[in-house]
Amino acid sequence: MELCMIVAVDERNGIGRNNELLCHLSGDMKNFKSLTSGCPVIMGRKTYESLPNGALPKRVNIVLSRDENYILDGAITCESVEEVLGLRVVKNSQRVFVIGGESIYKAFFDHADKLYVTCIRHHFEDADTFFPEIDIDHWRINSVSDEFKADEKNDYPYFFAVYERIRGNVHYVEDEFNEI
Ligand SMILES: NC(=O)c1ccc[n+]([C@@H]2O[C@H](COP(=O)([O-])OP(=O)(O)OC[C@H]3O[C@@H](n4cnc5c(N)ncnc54)[C@H](OP(=O)(O)O)[C@@H]3O)[C@@H](O)[C@H]2O)c1
After folding, report:
1. What residues does each domain of the chain span?
2. What is the CA radius of gyration of the chain?
3. What is the 122 CA–ligand 1 centroid distance (Å)?
4. What top-level class would CATH report for the domain 2-179?
5. Residue whose CA is closest, atom 36 of ligand 1?
6. C-alpha angle 96/97/100, rounded to 5°?
7. Is 175 a pocket residue for ligand 1 (Cβ < 6 Å)?
């Protein structure tokens, strides 16, 4: 199972304000739909409650809440990261997507293999939720798209970047082990 995160960030890693997205980008929505369709999506209770039409279609929706009585139609609810990672539908999927918000990106960050980042070319002063810093010692850029211009369907210019986690060097670890 490959654990991916998908997020749209502004120039300071802002992702939302007042429990809403920072802006509307039709191109980002299309990219989100095409990447996540058919895969389980993992989100926090607040993000779930901000979805205009409830659970996302054609995807198993997994929603985290610490409230054991939080039960949803059309979504699996879980009380912890470990519970999510133990779900059969997660373990048996080729790819799963963590789709936010801030607290859920943070909670799953150490488990992530790949980051699909939409970079919005703007700084929103009033952003109140953020994506974790992407430390270039631990992440390599896999691909960067051309920049897409703002237009009537996209509030700001943006581009896509994909990061892959740099895995430890096995030989280095083995060499160290041989010295003990
Ligand atoms: N730009 C983007 O790509 C993007 C994507 C998604 C969301 N967002 C934005 O992010 C913001 C929301 O982020 P947020 O951090 O406030 O909310 P959130 O992560 O969506 O949801 C927070 C809730 O998730 C539950 N939770 C969090 N950590 C948990 C854990 N370890 N175990 C069990 N349950 C856990 C708690 O629910 P209970 O309170 O019920 O216990 C918590 O209140 C919004 O503005 C949204 O629009 C942006």
Report:
1. 2-179
2. 17
3. 23
4. alpha beta
5. 65
6. 150
7. no
pTM over 0.90: yes
On whether the CB atoms of residues 39 and 95 are closer than 8 A, the answer is yes
pLDDT in tens, the chain (180 residues): 999 999 999 999 999 999 999 999 999 999 999 999 999 999 999 999 999 999 999 999 999 999 999 999 999 999 999 999 999 999 999 999 999 999 999 999 999 999 999 999 999 999 999 999 999 999 999 999 999 999 999 999 999 999 999 987 545 455 555 555
Which of 9, 32, 109, 129, when mutated, tests ligand 1's pocket best, judged by the most ligand atoms within 8 Å of its CB? Answer: 129
- Tokens 């970047």, located at residue: 161
Contact yes or no for 117/130 (Cβ under 8 A): no
Distance between CA atoms of 63 and 89, rounded to whole angstroms? Answer: 14
Query: Is the peptide bond between 101 and the residue preceding it cis, with omega within 30 degrees of 0?
Result: yes
To the nearest 10°, report the CA torsion of 72, 75, 76, 80: -80
CB of 127 shorter than 6 A to ligand 1: no
